[in-house]
Amino acid sequence: MTSSHIAKKQDLPPTAWAVLGLLSFPGERTGYELKKWADSSLRFFYWSPAISQIYAELRRLEELGYAASARSGPEEARAKRRYTITEAGREALAGWAADTAEAGPPVLKHGLLLRIWLGHLSEPELLRAMVTDHLERTRGELAAVREAMAHAAGVPEWAFPALALRWSERQHLAELELGEALLADLAEAGNRAADRGAEAGRQAGGDAPTPG
Question: N or C: which end of the chain has fewer CB within 10 A?
Fold first, then answer.
């Protein structure tokens, strides 16, 4: 890899590498097709960039010589621009993928847990409803992961994406287990709060002055 490629690689954001990674599999794809693939793979373990981000990164990748595109011919009713990865792009992507120092630790931003953390400002019933809704959404995501796994099964070119999806399946199963445990924890916390309230009431009653 040339020094110019190394410098360019260091300047690219993760979104660019994700888009280039989508292009690294066999075939030519439009920006819309890349978005669909990101929605059925990347979002289960990383995130899915917006379509505007995808097109912005495709332009950047073309400028760097990492991707190339061509418009479809008159045989298609609507002209489409299809993108492919170049040899320079594949070389740079391989270098980035092998650089474990850039991977960094996983980042967890759990919106539900932030609200649980602020539970003293909420009602127990609302917190339990939030967790229940989260469990329902997670079950839906798990079903989508398994659908994506079924599409990838038996396709040699998708062997490693299938491994990532299998990890995502396990992660969603763990999230369901954690959510059920959180419901139990909330119930226990509610019982403790009720006991403290009853005890405080008894102590207040015992300390009340009596007629002398």
Answer: C
pTM score, two decimals? 0.80
Beta bridge partners of 70: 82
Tokens of 154: 């038996």
Average pLDDT over residues 189-197: 74
CA 195 to chain centre: 40
- Write the secondary structure of the chain as one string of H (helix), E (strand) and C (coil): CCHHHHHHHHHCCHHHHHHHHHHCCCCCECHHHHHHHHHCCHHHCCCCCCHHHHHHHHHHHHHHCCEEEEECCCCCCCCCEEEEECHHHHHHHHHHHCCHHHCCCCCCCCHHHHHHHCHHHCCHHHHHHHHHHHHHHHHHHHHHHHHHHHHHCCCHHHHHHHHHHHHHHHHHHHHHHHHHHHHHHHHHHHHHHHHHHHHHHHHHHHCCCCCC
CA gap 157, 159 in Å, rounded? 6
Position 10 confidence tier, pLDDT thresholds 50, 70, 90? low
Tell me whether residue 92 is exposed, middle or buried, using C-beta atoms within 10 angstroms of its C-beta: 0 to 12, 13 to 18, 19 or more: buried
